[in-house]
Write a structure and sequence with these properties.
- It is a single chain.
- The chain has five helices and 24 strands.
- A hairpin with a 5-residue loop joins strand 18 and strand 19.
- The chain is globular and about 70 Å long.
- The chain has three domains: 128 residues, Lipocalin (Beta Barrel), CATH 2.40.128; 91 residues, Beta Barrel (Lipocalin); 171 residues, Glutaredoxin (3-Layer(aba) Sandwich).
- The longest helix is centred in the C-terminal third of the chain and has 19 residues.
- With 439 residues, it is α+β, with helices and mostly antiparallel strands.
- It has an eight-stranded antiparallel beta barrel with strand order 1-2-3-4-5-6-7-8. An eight-stranded antiparallel beta barrel has the order 9-10-11-13-14-15-16-17.
- It is 16% helix and 37% strand.
- 40% of the residues are buried.
- Keywords: Signal.
- One of its GO terms (molecular function) is antioxidant activity.
- This is Peroxiredoxin.
């Protein structure tokens, strides 16, 4: 799912409200008081609406502090830095954004979620947070009996001036508690968590990229109506009908090669600036997985979490992989920073290239063999002859259950079949020479 346009922006790394420029340096005598350990409840203010989220804080000092975002069963950990005497900085790992907050005298936090992309301008998302509050939307003891059980699969109809992808919600209800995921052809929302009170429901999610919220009501006929909100820039109305047979378009049939093409051709610089092409000897006679990603894209991160350990385990079987990153700034120096962070965090051993600015039209121009480019990420699987055999649009994460299981099974089956195919005699000699070079 493309969240690039929803990230609040600011120019450079200015931290404005909370610290002066000198606050980046270490404090000589930092105060003993720090953030209270335990579960916290935070609330973003988005277009005058409240978007709640939960996190856990562990560690009695900045050196050992861990900030963990909580969403249903999902856990995302982040490092904490102290800024000045009374502020903290929580970088959103590989996403070029951060939570910047002041520790108030009463122990609460007040701050903003900010983009760190150089040159971006725009608004930030203000938030406050209180310790010891484990609920998300409603305090314990104030629940209202649910008017319905929303467990199951829901087909969403979205209303927007711009084209929006088809969506399915898979929800699970336990009493007043709701958890689930919104799936589209371009990816999923990651796990969201919320509540149903009477005939009204709400779910939210915040895992590092811009926060997400969905709110609505249960109609008399059992259908749902409501709004989806992304950050500060987009709000989409929807209707939903429970439908166990609802399905999204086949992700293997959305992106394909234009008539007359069998192969993909490109040359992009790696993170050292060296041009890399599929025609390089390294890839001849190998099965190659090409992944089109962006570090700003949560589904791309989830796909990387899947692909990196798979590749490290299977590389010696005659397979290579390439990630082509399209970033929020058209700068190799910036991509070296963002994609380098991604490489280091997820132990990526395959080549990472820089494709340019994160723009779908630009991707289509730079990869003209594709009929169109729909989603970050897109996975392209190439056989030993250099011919494209599969293209998968988007990514379905583990929270999608059966959808993820089906993806994993087909991915492994297709790769096993292609790896088992014989390489040409020339390619076999090249591969043998490459192996000898490495000794």
């Amino acid at each position: 799912m493309n969240f690039k346009n929803y990230l609040p922006a600011l120019k450079g790394l200015t931290l404005g409200l909370f610290i002066s420029s000198s606050a980046f340096s270490a404090t000589v005598n930092p105060p003993a008081a720090f953030i209270k350990e335990g579960i916290w409840r935070g609330v973003f203010t988005v277009s005058e609406s409240a978007v709640p989220f939960n996190f856990e804080f562990k560690g009695k000092d900045p050196e050992h502090a861990v900030f963990t975002l909580l969403n249903g069963s999902r856990r995302d950990d982040f490092h904490v830095q102290r800024l000045g005497k009374d502020s903290i900085f929580v970088k959103m790992n590989t996403y070029d954004a951060a939570l910047v907050a002041k520790i108030e005298p009463n122990g609460t936090l007040s701050g903003e979620y900010r983009s760190l992309v150089p040159g971006f301008r725009g608004n930030a998302l203000p938030f406050t947070a209180e310790p010891g509050k484990t609920y998300r939307f409603f305090e314990p003891g104030k629940d209202v009996k649910p008017a319905a059980d929303l467990s199951g699969k829901w087909e969403l109809k979205l209303y927007s001036k711009e084209a929006v992808p088809a969506s399915i919600a898979v929800l699970k209800q336990n009493g007043n508690k709701l958890t689930g995921v919104i799936m589209t052809v371009v990816g999923d929302s990651r796990e969201i968590e919320g509540t149903i009170q009477g005939n009204e429901f709400a779910l939210s999610g915040f895992t590092g990229p811009s926060p997400f919220i969905i709110k609505g009501k249960v109609n008399e006929d059992g259908t749902l109506s409501g709004d989806q909100g992304f950050g500060i820039y987009k709000n989409i109305k929807f209707d939903a009908t429970k439908n166990t047979d609802a399905n999204l378009p086949d992700p293997y049939k959305l992106t394909f090669l234009k008539e007359g093409y069998k192969k993909l051709d490109f040359t992009f610089p790696d993170l050292k600036g060296k041009p890399v092409s599929l025609s390089d000897d390294k890839y001849k006679g190998k099965v190659v997985i090409v992944e089109i990603i962006g570090t700003w894209c949560p589904n791309c991160t989830d796909q990387t979490v899947f692909l990196s350990p798979w590749f490290n385990k299977n590389q010696k079987r005659g397979v290579e992989a390439i990630a082509i990153g399209f970033e929020q700034k058209d700068s190799l120096a910036y991509a070296q920073y963002t994609l380098g962070k991604l490489r280091d965090k997820y132990d990526i051993k395959y080549d990472i290239l820089f494709g340019g600015l994160a723009d779908k039209k630009l991707v289509s121009q730079k990869l003209p063999a594709l009929n169109k480019f729909i989603a970050f990420p897109t996975t392209i699987i190439i056989d030993r002859k250099g011919e494209v055999r599969e293209i998968y649009t988007g990514y379905t994460g583990t929270v999608t259950g059966k959808y993820y299981d089906d993806y994993e099974k087909k991915f492994n089956r297709v790769l096993d079949e292609l790896i088992a195919e014989p390489a040409s005699e020339t390619a076999a000699i090249n591969n043998q020479n490459e192996s000898l070079k490495g000794k």
